[in-house]
Automatic annotation (TrEMBL):
<dbReference type="InterPro" id="IPR043129">
    <property type="entry name" value="ATPase_NBD"/>
</dbReference>
<dbReference type="InterPro" id="IPR008040">
    <property type="entry name" value="Hydant_A_N"/>
</dbReference>
<dbReference type="GO" id="GO:0017168">
    <property type="term" value="F:5-oxoprolinase (ATP-hydrolyzing) activity"/>
</dbReference>
<feature type="domain" description="Hydantoinase/oxoprolinase N-terminal">
    <location>
        <begin position="5"/>
        <end position="158"/>
    </location>
</feature>
<dbReference type="GO" id="GO:0006749">
    <property type="term" value="P:glutathione metabolic process"/>
</dbReference>
<dbReference type="Pfam" id="PF01968">
    <property type="entry name" value="Hydantoinase_A"/>
</dbReference>
<feature type="domain" description="Hydantoinase A/oxoprolinase">
    <location>
        <begin position="179"/>
        <end position="321"/>
    </location>
</feature>
<dbReference type="InterPro" id="IPR002821">
    <property type="entry name" value="Hydantoinase_A"/>
</dbReference>
<dbReference type="InterPro" id="IPR045079">
    <property type="entry name" value="Oxoprolinase-like"/>
</dbReference>
<protein>
    <submittedName>
        <fullName>Hydantoinase/oxoprolinase</fullName>
    </submittedName>
</protein>
<dbReference type="Pfam" id="PF05378">
    <property type="entry name" value="Hydant_A_N"/>
</dbReference>
<dbReference type="GO" id="GO:0005829">
    <property type="term" value="C:cytosol"/>
</dbReference>
Amino acid sequence: MKYSLGIDAGGTYTDAVLLRDSDEVIVSSNKALTTYPDPLGGIRNAIDGIDEKYLNDIKVVSVSTTLSTNSILEGTGFPVGLILVGNYELNQELPTEHYVQVEGGHDYNGIPTASLDEDAVRQFAESVKDRVAAFAVSSYFSIRNHEHELRVKEIIKESTGLPIVCAHELSQELGAFERAVTAFLNAQLIPVTEKFMTTVEEYISSKGIDAKVFMLKCDGSVIGIQSALEKPIESIFSGPAGSLVGASFLTGNDTCAVIDVGGTSTDISVIKNGVPEMSESGAVVGGWKTRVKAIKMETSAMGGDSDVWVKDNSVNIGPRRVIPLCRAADLYPGFLDQLRTNPMPSKGLLGINFQPTKFYIRTGYDPIDISPQEMDVFRYISDEPTSIRELHSRMKKYPSSKHLDSLLQKRLIQTIGFTPTDALHVLGDYTEHTVEASEIGSKYLGSLCRRDAVEFASFVKQEFAKNMASNLMSFFLEGIPKTEIRKIFDIESPAKFKVDIPVVLIGGPVIAYLEDLQSILDAEIIVPEYSNVGNATGALAAKGIRRVDFLVRPASMAAPDWEFYVFSEKGRESFYEYEEALEYASKTGRETILQYMMDAGLDSEHVKVEIEKQEIIPDGWSHPLETRIRVMGVGSSLV
């Protein structure tokens, strides 16, 4: 008998699911807390909950994760140096302070517009190499010609030895700024993903499991482990993609909407006739528009572990993830007593970082690019929960909220605080951890907005459910501001939004929100068995999918029938016959797909390849002005 193991490492929980390949039945599952910042403990505990008698018969391991997504949402990725080559118009804020713009780049036909300023690249690399963990480069029209990005890559490796990501390796879409952001985010995630996947491989091997290892991508397909390490940006939404595929698998619905409630975020997506709905414009995460092909999704920084805080009688949820009070009481002996005796900050101090429920701990990461003022705060925070009062006592003054923010963004410290998970503990809907800690926190925060502990917890739960519903409707009602949709759910009315397809809830204790959602939406809302490990299930139900895009254009508008350029991820090729250009695209696309399947360890013998062609032919032209060709291969599912 053969089995497949699915693993999902989320911001809060790490899940494991074991599937029997012969009939696709789940025979075992387990949940464990994700360990931060090193996920090894959580992965070990999740796998250790699977009966050892199955381990020797596991032949496939597939992994999904929200760790990359959460790093971007929380702004806690590693520092990156960004190099922009060419005539960029920087009318938007860049995602990093470490950047340079140098001469170079190409035009729409891949012809150089200026020579690459190699000296400027070297000078920048030398100036920031001790303050960054990786580099990213985006050259103007690199989708038409890669040479300047590839040369910058050589220079950076020679000068610093640090990893560098080229924008053309990730996208062939127009949008120079968006490609730059995509490359930057990818570079940010390389250390996070490398540590994560190395940990997974090492522990799987130590358990005697001899299996192929895959990683779920953000389009709902799987990828080989080495390719995943080269392009970690493609895993940014692999957790939600797993929940989408998993929800369809668990409920038997080829068409459904999914609300995936994680520790850090809530994600909405739709699958139609067994195919995830895709965002052709590129994924948006943390406010940054990328050029990564991903499932179409509405995501918000609101999850079970989102920070709940009060200021000016207003209750706020998120955007940061914190350790819930109930879980902190389990993790740290003595924390309950600390919480009981923690004083109420003055109203003038109250803010996101100054609450009667806020404590800080170190993460274990070594400081990189930290200011003296930040170090003054960091040195007084220990591996045990540290309150604002304790910081004030040690520093002889209150720490700056700005410096706490910076330390959080650099992943050097983490917050303990009240969360929606705590609210569920107060209400008795979910009581896996120390309820008393949640009750104390709810009493403290409730007193700031004239509510008792139960009233405060009920309000947080209701707000969370309303936010889930408004996120769902925002997904369907494109073009209508989410804030306007959200206001509707605060109006007492007999009218309800109607949803004509099933809505599946995936995530931890999502059943706690079932009645609330049913009271405000007219929809079939389903909480399937194993909904709490839906992401890990989706990692196994996914298929191998590879898309290769080609653009065929005349080399010259003056002689449109004389020569043709073919642009793709392989670079620019030139042909004198239009039919030769089309043949090249078709053949190269098929070869790339089959090689991809082989490299990923997928079955290249059973791959279905389809070719789509779109043409723009002006009146009087014998050949198209533009031909777009997409070659798509779909391999068999893993199970």
